[in-house]
Amino acid sequence: MTDATGRRARATFPDVPGLAFGGDYNPEQWPRETWREDVRLMQEAGVTLVSVGIFSWGLIEIREGEFDFGWLDEVLDLLHDGGISVDLGTPTASPPAWFFAAHPESRVQTAEGTRLGFGSRGMVSPSSPAYREAIVRIATALAERYAHHPAVVMWHVHNEYGAPVSEDHSPASNDAFRAWLRERYGSLDALNDAWGTAFWGQHYEEWEHISTPAATPTIANPAQKLDFHRFSDHQLRACFVAERDGIRRHSDLPVTTNFMANQHGGCDLWEWAQLVDVVSDDHYLVAADPHPEIGLAIAADLTRSVAGGAPWMLMEHSTSGINWQPTGVAKRPGEMARNSLAHVAHGADAVMFFQWRASRRGAEKFHSAMLPHAGTDSRVWREVVQLGADVAALAEVRGSRVEADVAVLWDYESFWAQDLEWRPVDDLDHGERVRAFYERLRADGLTVDFALPGHDLSRYPLVVAPAQYMLRARDAENLTRYVAGGGTLVVSSFSAVVDENDGVHPGGFLSPLRDALGVDVEEYLPLARGTSADIVWSDGSVSPADHWQEHLRLAGAEVRATYAAGGGAGLPAVTRGSHGAGHGWYVSTRLSADALSGVFRGAYADAGITPRPRDEGLEIVRRRSDAASYTFAINHADHDREIAIAGTDLLSGETAGSFAVPAGSVRVIRHDLT
User: Fold this and answer.
1) 313: which of 104, 204, 304, 408 lies 20 to 30 Å off by Cα?
2) How distant, in Å, are the alpha carbons of 320, 373, 517, 644 from that of 366?
3) By three-state DSSP, how is residue 46 classified?
4) Stretch 553-560: mean pLDDT, rounded?
5) Catalytic member of 61, 160, 383, 550
6) Closest CA to 331 of 318, 348, 344, 315
7) How far is CA 208 from CA 176, 178, 188, 215, in A?
């Protein structure tokens, strides 16, 4: 089976009944007498799957090549006897003390030359030959021993690749970077051309003279830094593949690793998703966000999208507060269930947490857990038990798919390039732009898939590019074909600026999309910090805009709004072009989600989309199987809402022609299609 992008759709999933429910289980932190109590309480909470062994390397391989599996044997047997399945981890995110004593050269080195020490996590060079050898050894040993253990239903390689360290400047990394560049470019002439080394006298005549972009007097070569991002991600993926292949020599169970969609930008998840059998994600609310449910929805939609639309696993989230943000805000009553079921609404077939039992020691002892320090006589525990029952009630949702209306472009390489230094302003934030456009679409009742600009986009009547700073020529051609074929494309400011080597396009800013949009950019006109300038729409209405303006040159487009003030006063601000059977909109300034309604009224009309404006705070997402449609109505507001949908609420068993959705609660309405 393939998805809309033509890639293989993910079908492999752990063999557990219904939707998986559980979390990280770290029995090594507790005495043996606690283990049996854990299994009993897991049964009470409805837990069906736990992740085991993710940080236990030093307790499994106690010395190099010397393994002690006794405690792990006992834990897996207990879990199996209790009817609980296991996602068995390879503990390679945190090598043991003996490894660093034997291989000190494997420590991560920062751009400033500092070697990072032992006692944390993520402090090992992914380019270290000794590390590569060690991770394959322990992954293979675990697979050889537990491939046929009845508790084990899937493999969990490493943990949150790239967090907290995604880049390394050690000697091993320098050697590997040069080898990677030789493979990528083939010759120094090609590298010099791609990097533009004629600027600032950076020309290379010897491969050995190239290094990672370590600390420099002023900014380093941006093309070099962009390639180093690509290389660093490649090295992490190579480590994953090495472990995965070691496991597959002994086991055909699905293999995953936990992503951090929309919360860690160091890994290109489009590339990573091709390597795993099932996509999984960790997500934590941002306490400083006044509407964290929007960030959650973006992350969930992105995870589903990189999974090719297939069901995915929420591998980690929190029951309440977390301790690694400046303020660990506790979740309010009902918020944990609302968050959990929102992930399911957006395509997750698993609801899991970090972690099962709250740690008494270590860096995350103030991180919430399914079984909190307060024990079973606590609000969090009671809500966990109820959530387990709710997840079990949604068993039939498993395998159904989310129905999306539009596509939004999400390109990691473009984000990496935009984040490099010395742009016209230093805070043109791609994340902020994606969220503003996403909020507009969400407010209009539309469900979003994310995509790359090179994907087959023909199934979407509307494609939005909120932050496509870097655009390859072939991807621009793809977008132009999309418009010519009848699609509607909305592009935001500071897009199609550079090619894949961070070089300005030969025709100037926005030139690769000139045909699709009917416009290009003569000059950027950023406003002084803290100032704003309204735009005036063709109907005379006014919208506030801030921070950024562009001097547009029309190439066939019509003007839909002009700048009222600033350096661009009187110039076009929003344009609509026609190309073939489709239309291209260009928004050359920064508009809020509310102000973007002036763009999307016209874009929806061009695309033949009828928006479904939703009540503020009410989120509606639909999943569909061959037999039924499932409408998730999630009320994030503090007052009740009504939905005019007929069917049966799977959570309450109630059947009706319409439903009240109480404040802070969720309805999942099943509607038969036959």
Assistant:
1) 408
2) 10, 9, 52, 42
3) coil
4) 98
5) 160
6) 318
7) 11, 7, 11, 18
pTM above threshold 0.85 = yes
Tokens 């909109």 belong to: 585
Q: How far is CA 576 from the centre of its chain?
A: 31
User: 77: helix, coil or strand?
Assistant: helix
> Roughly how many angstroms between the first and final C-alpha of the chain, as a whole number?
24
pLDDT band for 153, please (50, 70, 90 cuts): very high
In the block, tokens 């897991």 appear at 42
Q: Is the peptide bond before 355 cis (omega within 30 degrees of 0)?
A: yes
Using the structure block, give the residue that is written with the tokens 């499932």.
630
What whole-number distance in Å separates Cα of residue 525 and Cα of residue 407?
29
- Per-residue pLDDT band for 4 (boundaries 50, 70, 90) equals very low
Please provide the average confidence, as pLDDT, over all residues in the chain: 96
Q: Which of 167, 243, 293, 316 is catalytic?
A: 316
Does a cis peptide bond (omega within 30 degrees of 0) precede residue 164? yes
pLDDT digits (tens, 9 = 90+) for 496-529: 999 999 999 999 999 999 999 999 999 999 999 8
Residue % of the chain over a pLDDT of 90: 94
Q: What is the pLDDT of residue 11?
A: 41
Catalytic status, residue 160: yes
Token digits of residue 136: 């394959």
Whole-angstrom distance, CA of residue 80 vs CA of residue 84: 5
For the beta carbon of residue 201, count every other beta carbon within 10 angstroms.
6
User: What are the structural domains of the chain?
Assistant: 20-178+237-397 (3.20.20.80), 406-607 (3.40.50.880), 618-672 (2.60.40.1180)
- One-letter amino acid identity for 620? I
> Which tokens hold the place of 450?
């994310």
Amino acid at position 605, single letter: A
Average pLDDT over residues 519-541: 95
Tokens linked to 534? 């309204």
SS3 of 421-444: CCCCCCCCCHHHHHHHHHHHHHHC
